[in-house]
Design brief:
By secondary structure, the protein is an alpha/beta fold. The protein is built from twelve helices and 14 strands. Helix content is 35%, strand content 21%. The protein binds magnesium ion and zinc ion. Zinc ion (ZN) binds next to helix 10.
Length: 367
């Protein structure tokens, strides 16, 4: 009698389990494997939930980030401040260490911290950085340079030559070409077999080994000043170059100027830059869906401006907002993930956890 009851329960479970498994939507993604070969970390500088929601309002169903299968929140505070800057924020994502505001991948004591980009490179993976600021600006710098002064962008440029990064695209030509110390780092890059480009249209991908695309003297212009589709285009080009390495790659892409729109308390600036960043995410998704071995993480280093959305219309895509502040705020920021390993990026995590999860997914030991 007891056995019969147990048997019946087993039968009932067998019948019910498949029903529950398929009760939701189709599985959101198909992986060839459980761990990624490639990781694309995409940072919307200053992109809090409100900034992102402007993009969701404007683009509706076409907002790429809104379709990511896994999401969570990130605590952004730095070693010496409740409110981080982009230097300490990038250091957390790049090295797994909280450091002081203004520091670039050095500890609060000033010790160099090895970055995930440097580790990936030492393991034979391809590496890349793409940004709409100068490529020597705090966020990209955090992945490749080491200094306790983020303002030392000429010094940060020198650190690019200490690595063998395969592709970097952004502004910041003057930090390589017109430096205070008069050293011409463009010549040094050429000696290290980099193709130098001032315009992405001039880049013949099949004939490029390593690419240094410095598309503006300082920061790139903002969207409303004619930057066009540079960020999505650069993301697409970087992926074409990096995918040639069969061991895999690490790529960081930054929507740098969402933050600057926040500092300016300029909602149109924020909307344009967030939409543009999401277009770049679209290029990454296109690649990752075909590839099946690429993890994409989309997040922010901090929120900027204390943006509140005070009105809007989903149907017409109009949005109104108000800023309470000219600087960064302490609120947690959203994180989204797609691809093998993406299920690990849920709940509330420290910004330093993102690095630790990525290192583990690559199969790299912590330095
Ligand atoms: Mg930045
Ligand atoms: Zn900022």
């Amino acid at each position: 009698m007891v056995r019969q009851i147990v048997f019946r329960q087993v039968v009932v479970f067998l019948l019910i389990i498949p029903v529950f498994t398929y009760a939701g939507n189709d599985p959101p993604q198909k992986h060839k494997q459980k761990v990624p070969r490639n990781i694309i970390l995409m940072i919307g500088d200053g992109m809090g939930s409100a900034q992102l929601y402007t993009c969701i309002t404007v683009k509706g169903d076409k907002c790429n980030i809104a379709h990511f299968p896994y999401s969570g929140f990130v605590k952004t505070y730095s070693a010496d401040s409740y409110i981080t800057d982009s230097g300490a924020g990038a250091t957390a994502y790049a090295t797994g260490h909280k450091t002081n505001n203004g520091y670039i991948s050095v500890s609060p004591e000033g010790k160099n911290l090895k970055t995930i980009l440097e580790t990936a490179e030492s393991k034979g993976l391809a590496t890349g950085l793409v940004a709409t600021s100068a490529i020597t600006h705090a966020t990209p710098a955090g992945f490749i340079a080491h200094t306790s002064n983020r303002g030392n962008m000429d010094d940060i440029a020198r650190d690019f030559l200490k690595t063998d990064i395969d592709v970097f695209i952004g502004g910041g030509y003057d930090n390589f070409a017109h430096r205070k110390d008069s050293i011409n780092l463009i010549d040094s890059l050429r000696a290290h077999k980099y193709t130098i480009a001032r315009d992405l249209k001039d880049v013949d991908v099949p004939n490029v080994s390593k690419l240094a695309a410095l598309l503006a003297d300082g920061p790139m212009p903002r969207i409303s000043a004619g930057r066009g589709s540079m960020l999505p285009d650069a993301t697409e080009m970087a992926l074409k170059l990096l995918k040639r390495n069969k061991k895999g790659f690490f790529l960081m892409v930054e929507g740098s100027q969402i933050d600057w729109g926040g500092h300016d308390n300029d909602l149109n600036y924020v909307v344009d830059e967030t939409v543009d960043f999401d277009n770049a995410v679209g290029k990454a998704i296109e690649f990752a869906k075909k590839d099946g071995e690429t993890l994409i993480i989309v997040t922010a280093d901090h929120e900027t401006g204390g943006l509140a959305l005070t009105g809007g219309d989903i149907k017409t895509g109009k949005v109104q907002g108000s800023f309470v502040y000219k600087d960064h705020t302490a609120v947690m920021v959203p994180i989204f993930a797609f691809g093998p390993g993406s299920e690990q990026f849920t709940g509330l995590m420290e910004n330093t956890d993102v690095y630790k999860k990525c290192m583990a997914l690559y199969g790299f030991k912590l330095p």
